[in-house]
Automatic annotation (TrEMBL):
A Pfam family assignment: Thioredoxin_2
Keywords from the named record: Redox-active center, Signal
Annotated protein name in UniProt: Thioredoxin family protein
Keyword Signal: yes
Signal peptide location: 1-17
Domain Thioredoxin: residue ranges: 11-148
Amino acid sequence: MRKLFIMLFLIPLLTTAQEKGIQFEHNTNWEKLKEKAKAENKHIFVDCFTTWCGPCKWMADNVFVQEEVGEFFNDNFVNLKLQFDETKEDSEDVKSWYDEAKRFAKDYEVRAYPTFLVFDPNGELVDKVVGGSQADKFIARFKDALIPEKQFITAKKKYEADPQNLELAQQIFTKASDIYDIPLATKAFNIILDKSSKEEFLKKENLGGIVVLAQEDIDGKAFDLIYNNQDSFKDFFKNQFGADVNDFLAHMISQKVLRPKISSGESIDYDEIEKQLSTKYDKVNFSKSFASMKFSSYLKKKDWKTFVTEYDKKVKSDPNITAEELNEYAWKMFEECDDKDALKVALTWSKIAVERNEVEYIIDTYANLLYKLGDAKNAILWQEKAVSITSEDRREELQTSLDKMKKGEKTW
């Protein structure tokens, strides 16, 4: 009886805990969802996601579950999670939405994930957001989605009614580039470029949109604007991506030239192509970009000897290589290479990485390399340290490797 009483007492608590966060609709269809939204006079919020999308999972695990997020969305929206890929593990509920997901992708131009769509109580699309954010910013963005004057569709209609209007073009350029509506953003971009001075156009609020368009076409006006005004973009790239504007330009140019050659299996003379591009684009330094591509080429071919020789030269000559880069290549070697001499060199890179940033995943690489090279005693000591400092979500993974080391089993 006491056990039953305790269970009955816990049920309301468990129910309360489960109700925190956004409550998504299940076992329904689009027509029923619209009927519910209209009856309750609520907007519809649709989370367009895929099972392989990392940012989608992050939003689901860290933002949607928060109580304040749930309160806002449950009060103002009827909420739907719509999966855009198809897997063997899909439930019947997910399968029932397959055709609708294809329609959404076409009708509402869902091309990136996560994409969030907002419909009014009548089922008409009024706003669109691409990419997630922290809870407070996420709530603030969707508060705006309830206000017609701040909705994307409202701004789009106003602009289309007066496409030569500079102020409207500026407004829609920012909104369109944010959601990767490239045709609309390009149209507005050309109007702004035609009616503004270069100084006026290179305002902080325009830089992100210019970068979005530049990624679409290196022969376009947006890319040319960045190429010829790199100083104006330096802070933007540093703050937004932790990268250098030169690295962006070099990557975009070299990828366009090399991608077809790589796809066709053509033999590539990296030094000659770098020389040609450096002549054509004399405001860009390609050395870092081409070095990275050469390393990737060696790895793809599993040419460990050449890769180790060339990358070790860089390690010894460049004191600014990050621990993360060293760790990435060392882990790649651990996973795929069985050449003992090559692994010994990778171990030296991993040791430098540990000295520069002693975090659990870098220590884990060092421990696994030690273990693969036969030094089980020290490998176990380092892996125990990795386990002791890791977060709860990674502890099981690192502990599994530690258990295998203690049993003498392979960890690769």
